[in-house]
Each structure stands twice: as C-alpha cells, then as structure tokens.
Amino acid sequence: MTGEDGPNTKVGRVIETYDLDELGARLEAAWTGETGERTSLRDLADEFNEAVLAAAVRETAGSSLDVEASSTYEALRNGTGSEATRARRRLEREGVDVDELTADFVTHQAVHTYLTEDRGASLPTDETDRAERKIETIEKLQGRLSAVTESAISSLASADELDRDDYDVLVDVRGVCPHCGADASVVDLIRRGGCGCTSEDESPSDD
C-alpha cells in the first residue's frame, strides 16, 4: 500500500529514491516462486542492497563504474575490517557517500514488510500452511511435555517425594538470536519470519 506522500515502507522509499521501479516486481516474483523456486527473504535483501549499491555508483557524476557490486557489498557487510575499509575507499573514489548508501540498505524483515504491505503479496497457500503445521507440531509437543511433567509432580507428591502436587507447569520454547540478543517465543518467531535483525549491528525494526 502506498500513502498519499509516497511509499509507506523503507524498501518502497529506497526504490523510489534510486529509480529502481522494476525491482519491486522482481522481488515479489522471486519471493512467491512465480518464476520457479522461491528465494528467501535474506537473499532478496542482499540482492536488493546490491542493486542499490550499483545504482548509487551509476548515479554518481563522472563515475567510471569501476566497482563490482556483489563483491563490494559482501566486503562492506561481512568482510574483515581491512576489506570493509578498502570497499569504502573504492566507493568514495567513485564519489559515493558511503554512509548515506549503507543507511539505505535494508533487512530481510524490511523486504517482507514491503512485499506484504506495499505490494499486497503473500506466499502460496502450501507455504503458509507449512509454517502453521510446524507451529502445530511444536504446540502439541509443548502440551505433551506439560502433561508428562504434571503427572510426574503428582506421582512424586503422592509418594511424599515432593512437598505438593499443585505446582503450575509452564512450558515455553524460546529462540534467542545470537546477533541482536532478541528473545522470543519460537512460535512468534516463525510467524514473524524471524527477529528482524541481520548479522550486522542493525535495528531489528528496519521497516
């Protein structure tokens, strides 16, 4: 969905800024599997950011285009300190404002928000059902573990090996992101498509 003053999402705004109108349709087709196998949101975010980098170089007056987008992006995002520094210098030689450029990079969650909100896209039914089936399996196992635990408490209390049998049993399977430290229910993580961060130090709410 697009507001009166332009796109509502970061991806939509960046597409508009860099004149990458055709990229939105490509992202949607790749995510939904319209042209074949589905592409993950993380891979789509990388593809999008590489396109933004290439566009920034193209738009720089007098640029020689002496920059390979994929390798330069990889060095900026995941390279060692020296690799990232060399990548920044290459871009600066082309006249690119690197801080402005990297501020326009997006996360996989931002791509998801753009596809579902700006473009109204959704996954094929079988893909959605797969996530819900996994959630159902997890919830059934949680229920089973809770029942087994309650039975064990009751049995031990009856044998005077536990002081009482009316303890509340809580079973909560959680996922903790090793990068941003986000701690959430696994069911919530599955439904949201992750915690929203990347391996870099970024805000998890990059919409």
Give your account of this protein's structure.
The chain has 207 residues and is mainly alpha-helical. It has 2 domains: 2-123, no CATH class; 124-169, no CATH class. It is 57% helix and 5% strand. The protein is built from 9 helices and 4 strands. It has a two-stranded antiparallel ribbon with strand order 1-2. Helix 3 crosses helix 7 (108-118) and helix 8 runs antiparallel to helix 9 (186-192). The longest helix is centred in the C-terminal third of the chain and has 34 residues, at 125-158. The model is unreliable at 199-205 (pLDDT under 50).
Please give the share of residues in helix.
Answer: 55-70%
Number of domains: 2
User: What is the N-to-C succession of helices and strands?
Assistant: EEHHHHHHHHEEH
The low-confidence runs, each spanning 5 or more residues with pLDDT under 50, are 199-205
- Cα distance spanning the termini: 14 Å
How many DSSP helices?
A: 9
What Rg, in angstroms, do the CA atoms define?
23 Å
Largest pleated sheet: 2 strands, antiparallel
Strand order of the largest sheet: 1-2
Global morphology: elongated
User: Mean pLDDT, as a whole number?
Assistant: 85
Class inferred from helices and paired strands: mainly alpha
Number of strands: 4
Beta content: under 5%
Features:
207 residues, two-stranded antiparallel ribbon, two-stranded antiparallel sheet
